[in-house]
Amino acid sequence: MLELGPEGSDRLSGQQRVAVPIVQNTDERAAFDEVFLPHMPEAYRLAQWLTGNASDAEDIVQEAAIRAFRGIKNFGAVNARAWSLTIVRNTAFSWLAKNKPKTVVYLNDLSAVEQQELEYEGLLGTKVETPEQIALFKADAEEVEKALAQLPTQFREVIVLREINQMNYRDIAEITNVPIGTVMSRLSRGRKLLLAILGKRK
Amino acid sequence: MSALLKDDELLLNAYCDGELDPVAVGEFERRLESDESLKARYDRLQKLREGVRSIPQMDMPAGLQARIQSRLDGERRNNVTVLRRRTWSYQALAAAAVFGAVISSSVMMTMEQFGQRDNVASEVVAGHIRGLLAPQPYDIASSDRHTVKPWFTARLPASPQVPDLAAKGFSLLGGRVDVIGHDPVATVVYKHAAHTISLTTLRPGQSVPDQTISGYYVRSWSDGDFTFVAVSDLPGADLAAFERAFSAAAPAPEVK
Q: Residues B24-64: pLDDT tens digits?
């Protein structure tokens, strides 16, 4: 039963009950290795996109790993990847709120009109374009990277989760804790914003 | 199809992301062939997506994993040290043994209860999956509540209200009879975007914990007449919205 059993008396039933946390700990560690560890490189990438810098991302992944380890008992979901990335995402947001509150624009902080504008309309929203205008667009990786870094966090995260982490809508909805419909509108709006930024640079 | 996907832009995005069902893909591809402007927008979106995917990604720094591992080892050692410091009298050990026996028997009982509930949830999910595998997920197809409700009434001793929630994004597809345990029960089928929701109605007073089974989300609630179990591949937030919409539209009748 025990890997770490102290000698002698621990074979008595009383001692075994006391030792249960150790067993759990060993199991938890194994569960952590199985559930969270394989997704760490991805977790790091996501954290880097959310914070915009490498050393912050490292801090966040460390903290998320500890949170995941402590919460591994709660892992009942089927999808270890979505579960792990959810923790990383939430860790990153609380970290940003604490350390860089100015950089995160929360949609909830905006007025209703601004929210509406950002989520559903504005920029390219209502403009009708001709095929010729649409074709006028060119973007290499470097340009796109700069543009993506400028997007408000809520749009950036769905695009990163979709394109970099290659998650489907359902998992993105789970990770960002919004309905699928909101994921769809944010993806669509986020991509339009990217096109608008790239259009200006041209 | 829900109002959401009538939006061209969302449809285009969902098509590029591989999130449309085969029928919708067929329809959309026919439109792409004939609509020059849509085709141009499609090309632009794909080019943008390639651009995003071509951004070079940084690898995780060497040593980060080792640092995390050693921090976790530290957490574990601390726990072990605390436990080893304790000493135990034989009286305490005996008491603990008795206590342990009591606990384990009550745990067994609880587990049995859980097992039963899990069976109910599993059977409801199995009904949902069977529905998805069949040519259509319902026995009676109708978006008209006045067709579905009488159909149930003719077959089952008890059946729920069947509201159409299309205004809230959940359109009524129809109904079917599932067998849960040994009882035939009513299941109402709704559609949200491309996702199917099965709402199975059990006799009241059963508690089915919210959970995930085989990748399907299970959400349950009760009113005076029924215990409702909703199953879908929609995430929890959407099922919660569904519960609110359904409860608002189908209040439990006060007098039967």
A: 888 899 999 999 889 999 999 999 999 999 998 888 888 88
B135 and B21 both lie in a single domain: no
Q: Exposed, middle or buried: residue B122 (CB in 10 Å: 0-12, 13-18, 19+)?
A: middle
pLDDT digits (tens, 9 = 90+) for A56-108: 999 999 999 999 988 887 777 568 899 999 999 999 998 888 887 666 655 55
What are the counts of helices (DSSP H) followed by strands (DSSP E) for chain A?
10, 0
List the domains of chain A with CATH numbers: 8-99 (1.10.1740.10), 107-201 (1.10.10.10)
Residues of chain A with pLDDT under 50: 1-23, 109, 122-126
- Residue B64 domain flag: no
Q: pTM of the full predicted structure?
A: 0.56
pLDDT at res. A167: 93
For residue B64, give both structure tokens.
Answer: 């980060």
Please judge whether B40 and A178 are an interchain contact, meaning their C-beta atoms are less than 8 angstroms apart.
Answer: no
Residues in contact with B78: Cβ distance below 8 Å, sequence separation at least 6, in sequence order = none
**Claim to verify: residue B169 and residue B244 sit in the same structural domain:** yes
Query: What dihedral do alpha carbons B14, B20, B23, B29 form, nearest 10°?
Result: 40
Joined together, the tokens standing for residue A160 give 């990163």
Answer yes or no: do A4 and B80 touch at CB < 8 A. Answer: yes
Place of tokens 């039933």: A13
Q: Please give the torsion angle defined by the CA atoms of residues B80, B84, B85 and B88, in that order, rounded to the nearest 10 degrees.
A: 140
Say yes or no: B118 and B42 in one domain: no
Q: B193 and A180 in contact by Cβ < 8 A?
A: yes
List the domain range (segments joined by +) for residue B19: 3-51
Selecting from A26, A140, A173 the residue whose C-beta is nearest the C-beta of B235 gives: A173
- Contact residues, chain B, for A46 at CB < 8 Å: none
Angle (CA) B145 B193 B52, round 5°: 175
CA dihedral of residues A17, A21, A23, A24 (deg, nearest 10): 130
> Is A169 close to B241, i.e. CB distance below 8 A?
no
Q: Is residue B75 part of a domain?
A: no
Interface test with A, best of B2, B16, B64, B86 (most A CBs within 10 A): B64
CATH of the domain at B240: 3.30.200.100
**What is the value of ipTM here, to two decimals?**
0.75
Closest Cα in chain A, distance from residue B53 (Å): 6
Residue B158 is assigned to a structural domain of this protein: yes
Spatial separation of the C-alpha atoms in residues A133 and A173, rounded to whole Å: 33
Nearest residue, CB atoms, B60 vs list A32, A44, A174: A44
B159 occurs within a structural domain = yes
Choose from B8, B36, B72, B232 for mutation: most chain A CBs within 10 A.
B72
